[in-house]
Sequence to fold (196 residues):
Amino acid sequence: MTESVDKFERALSDFTGAPFVVTTDCCTHAIELCLRLLDIKTCSFSAYTYISVPMTMEMLEIDYHMTDETWNEQYQFHGTPVWDSARCLKPKMYQTGLYQCLSFGPGKPLNNVRGGAILLDNQEHFRKLKAMSYDGREIGHEKWTQQNTFRQGFHYMMRYEECDTALSKLNAYEQKQIFDHSYQSYQDLRQYRIIK
Fold:
């Protein structure tokens, strides 16, 4: 099972140029894990994004501000090295020092129904994010019962079946050599209200 995940992560690493890749069940959870890991307290970002983004900020009690910024393939959470790269998947797209969060959901460059990933170059953070995404399970433990102590983790991993299909789709995507995509613009989220 973990072999399928490892294969897809290595393939994404080769394709994007990211030294390390952590797969997740969706892009929103990839963003959440990065914000948690880096202990982000405040940031600003484009108001033209998906509603789950400000909901994540609310859940994590991050002081955030939405801006008029327009974007094409990816945008930054300003004040952080975290990027929402849900609409981008290109060869050697990784940028040093960043945490670029991908989506493999419907309509995204790699349409795998569900899935996401984090591209990064920090090995220590790779190990921490891997554990965080998989119920606190550290790399090297095939069964969770082999581990005695757990840091807080989440059930955010990409399943091995999803990795198998995503790997096949990535190979086909690479062969097509079409990496620029157009999308319908998001609504301005400042016109909506989130209540708890």
